[in-house]
Amino acid sequence: MTKPTADQVQNLFRPQLESVPLARHWARQLVADGWGLPDGLAGDVELVVAELTSNAVRHAPHSRATMARGFLVVLAREARGGVRVEVHDAGDERPRVRTPGDDQERGRGLCIVEALTHTWGTSPRLPFGKIVWALLGDPAA
Fold first, then answer.
1. Inside any domain, residue 47
2. What is the per-residue pLDDT for 6?
3. Mean pLDDT of 21-45
4. 77 Cβ neighbours under 8 A, 6+ residues apart
5. Rounded to an integer, what distance in angstroms lies between the CA atom of residue 9 and that of residue 87?
6. Residue 37 has what DSSP assignment?
7. Contact 65, 122 (CB under 8 A)
8. Which of 26, 49, 136, 137 has its CA 20 to 30 A from that of 118?
9. What CA–CA distance (Å, rounded) separates 75 from 14?
10. Is the dihedral of CA 120, 117, 33, 25 positive or negative?
11. Number of separate domains in the chain
12. Which tops the pLDDT comparison, 67 or 136?
């Protein structure tokens, strides 16, 4: 990967589960190799991107119109060495942290996001959809 000159980079992915590993690999490579940030931070960004893009694929509506658009991943290098992750999708439903039972295989993704990030949340995306964002890295660095 050539070293990006921008502090913000975006990539559009098809709304299918096969896009999740592509998005997480792209994010890790950009953060570690492109921006030269620490490997531990790159790994955390990779996991957060995987969880948020999985949710975008599983929970956002997939009409013909949105299938053509996919979901957008935006990574922004913060001034103090952190990274802001954004996943834009066509869904209006806001994600919420769940407490799954021991026998449930799903529902832990946002717990992982909470554990790895300084903060995370959602914002509306006009004219429709939402942005799920997360801030990683030491905010006091």
1. yes
2. 79
3. 96
4. 7, 8, 35, 37, 83
5. 12
6. -
7. no
8. 26
9. 17
10. negative
11. 1
12. 136
CA separation, residue 60 to residues 54, 56, 95 (Å): 10, 5, 10
Using DSSP, state whether 72 is helix, strand or coil.
strand
pLDDT more than 70, % of the chain = 82
Amino acid making up residue 81 = G
Residue 75 maps to a domain: yes
Among all chains, which residue has been given the structure tokens 């890295």?
A: 137
- What is the amino acid identity at position 52? L
Percent of the chain with pLDDT over 90: 54
Task: Read off the CATH number of the domain in which 76 is found.
Answer: 3.30.565.10
Please tell me what DSSP assigns to residue 30. Answer: I
- pLDDT of 38 over the 80 cut: yes
CB 76 within 8 Å of CB 84? yes
Cα gap 111→79, rounded to integer Å: 26
**Sheet of strand 83-89, all strands in order from the earlier edge strand to the far edge:** 8-13, 71-77, 83-89, 130-136, 119-124
| 110-to-79, 99, 128 alpha-carbon distances in Å | 25, 10, 22
Instruction: Report whether pLDDT(65) > 80.
Output: no
